[in-house]
Design goal:
The complex is a heterodimer of chains A (272) and B (303).
Chain A (H helix, E strand, L loop, with lengths): L6 H25 L3 H7 L11 H7 L3 H32 L3 H13 L8 H10 L6 H10 L2 H12 L4 H9 L4 H12 L1 H17 L2 H6 L8 H11 L4 H35 L1
Chain B lengths: L23 H21 L2 E2 L7 E2 L3 H8 L1 H32 L4 H10 L7 H11 L6 H4 L1 H4 L9 H29 L3 H9 L4 H12 L1 H16 L3 H6 L11 H11 L3 H25 L13
Antiparallel strand pairs in B: 1-2
Helix pairs in contact in B: 1-14, 2-14, 3-8, 3-11, 8-11, 11-14, 13-14
Classes of the chains: A mainly alpha (272), B mainly alpha (303).
Chain lengths: 272, 303
């Protein structure tokens, strides 16, 4: 679509850019300040003598352990989501039966189930299963709640594989399995990339399930660790800001690499 | 939302469609960790359970206590206020930004890329960041005390605490809704705007007569996700206000958490969670029905 100059929307975007960018700047700048510098000049001024002391203080805390736990949870959640959603999206696109369409509808309804609402029953079920304070107990429900969005995104992407290609493969004597591995999977790579990035973000940033399903340092993830640091570093704002900054660096790196697939995929939610 | 059948030509393949077995693992997994918990939640709301041992059936006791509690009515009211405020602030901002960003070009791409960053951060990181920036002693309100008035403590009164929560949730979620509108606006056929220009319609007229009606599906998707999301605001409240001052920002989700996980009254917590699920489903259902969203095939047909 083509829009000419729209100064009103342009100005609004400029204001919003400042609203987004100033806090991010304040986070970076505060984390580089000494405590004296910070209490003299506040969060908005540039650091007078930039220091990495705060970062080192955070790294010397339990932060690396939280980082490891979060990485384990993220890798496991992504693996589970991909293993479950890719075949599901394939059958949703290729099988027009009533049963499959009902299943797809259930996943769409799942979009409206709030994670907060199931915190207590999930805690109950995970406790019965003996998985309380265990990373597996965090991984399973986190992956489950990624399924609705991922199914929606990936079935949208797989639908773009043209039917003629399946017909050609069928003439060639290929069955469902071969079509899955030689057509559906390779041709929906961008959709798969989107669900990888989306589920990785959900797992990396997840707060509620780790909050109610774990309690010890050995199972704490980064978002929960930040919540702890808030009390621990309550008078040491530069260290707290360093912890927030360090927690976001891995995500920002992924964003720089995979921005396109995430943005395009999520845009599809509203566009289709 | 996505339609199930794309084109009749898909049926033409000689290949037998893949069987239900392909859907079984995901369906079972989702049932165990998302559907069954809903049933367990409803059952727990009729029991008393402290987190240790087995839940004991108590009939409708939790529900009677909840309905009779004037504090819970206050909580529901706060939930409604926080949700409405979030929707009223973030929807117009995202709509405007989304339509603007859909225009393409280098500037818009760069601005969009920066504005997207909050979507990547955890709500914990965002809340801790804002809690620090708005800290009465070390933060921005202290520096700019003229702007923020007297004490500079934005967490001290109910209204300023709600304004902070609304602002922070808009900061966090507007990028996501912007993307939804951006995707929708990109899909609007340019020919509609060309026709409008020939008819002499200005930018504002074009926005209200073409863009807005064409973005109907995007708007409903955004509203449903936004309402359900704000209705269940939790992480932000826990970290920014702890439900305070004096319970003034305690919404249903936060009440569910404190009642269950801090007061160990999981039966009552489950009753509150059930209220939340019922409210979220009713609102989604109502939005879908009242807008005819479920009947819509494609608004782009015939263009």
């Amino acid at each position: 679509m083509r829009r000419g100059h729209n100064y009103l929307a342009g100005a609004a975007a400029g204001v919003w850019l400042l609203i987004i960018a100033i806090p991010l700047y304040a986070m970076v700048s505060s984390s580089l300040k000494t405590r004296t510098d910070f209490s003299n000049s506040g969060p908005l001024a540039l650091p007078t003598e930039p220091t990495l002391q705060n970062m080192l203080e955070v790294i010397a805390s339990s932060f690396p352990r939280y980082l490891l736990n979060t990485a384990i949870v993220t890798v496991a959640v992504v693996a589970l989501v991909v293993a479950l959603v890719v075949p599901l999206a394939y059958v949703v696109v290729r099988n027009r039966g009533r049963a499959v369409s009902t299943i797809f509808r259930v996943f769409l309804l799942g979009l409206a189930i709030p994670v907060q609402a199931v915190a207590i029953p999930v805690f109950y079920l995970i406790s019965i299963a003996g998985l309380y304070d265990n990373l597996i107990g965090v991984i399973l429900p986190t992956a489950a709640f990624c399924l609705p969005v991922c199914t929606l995104v990936l079935s949208g992407a797989m639908r773009d594989v043209s039917p003629e290609m399946y017909e050609a493969l069928a003439l060639d004597g290929g069955g469902s399995f071969r079509a899955f591995w030689t057509l559906a999977v390779p041709l929906s790579r961008s959709g798969i990339a989107t669900i990888v990035v989306y589920s990785a973000l959900q797992a990396w940033n997840g707060f509620l399930f780790p909050l109610v399903l774990t309690q010890s340092v050995d199972t704490k993830t980064i978002p929960l660790g930040l919540f702890d640091f808030q009390t621990q570093f309550s008078v040491n704002m530069p260290a707290l800001m360093s912890a927030v900054l360090l927690s976001t660096i891995p995500v920002l790196i992924v964003y720089l690499i995979a921005r396109r697939s995430l943005v395009q995929g999520l845009m599809g939610i509203g566009g289709k | 939302m996505t339609r199930l059948s794309s084109s009749p030509a898909t049926r033409g393949g000689a290949m037998r469609p893949p069987g239900l077995g392909w859907a079984a693992p995901a369906t079972l997994f989702f049932a165990v960790f998302a559907i069954i918990p809903l049933i367990v939640m409803a059952w727990l709301s009729f029991t008393t359970w402290s987190g240790i041992g087995s839940p004991a059936f108590v009939g409708s006791e939790n529900w009677e206590r909840l309905v009779a509690d004037p504090a819970f009515q206050q909580i529901l009211w706060i939930t409604v206020v926080i949700t409405l405020a979030a929707i009223l602030v973030q929807t117009p901002i995202s709509l405007l930004l989304g339509v603007w960003a859909a225009g393409g070009g280098r500037t818009r791409a760069i601005v969009s890329a920066i504005c997207f960053v909050p979507l990547l951060l955890s709500s914990a990181a965002i809340a801790v960041l804002w809690r620090g920036l708005l800290d009465p002693n070390f933060g921005i309100p202290g520096e700019l005390s003229d702007l923020f008035g007297g004490s500079g403590n934005v967490f001290a009164s109910q209204w300023s605490a709600i304004i902070v929560l609304t602002f922070v949730s808009a900061w966090q979620y507007a990028p996501f809704h912007t993307l939804i509108f951006q995707g929708g606006a990109r899909a609007i056929p340019a020919v509609l705007y060309q026709a409008a220009e020939i008819d002499g319609a200005g930018k504002v007229r074009q926005f209200f007569s073409i863009t807005l009606p064409q973005l109907r599906n995007s708007l409903i998707t955004s509203l449903i996700l936004g309402v359900v999301g704000s209705l269940t605001t939790f992480d932000t409240i826990l970290i920014l206000t702890r439900g305070g001052p004096g319970g003034a920002t305690t919404n249903t989700a936060y009440f569910m958490y404190t009642t269950g996980f801090l007061s160990f009254d999981f039966g009552m917590g489950s009753a509150a969670a059930t209220v939340l699920v019922i409210a979220a489903s009713l609102i989604s259902f109502f939005l879908v029905r009242s807008t005819g969203y479920d009947r819509m095939t494609s608004e782009k047909e015939g263009v």
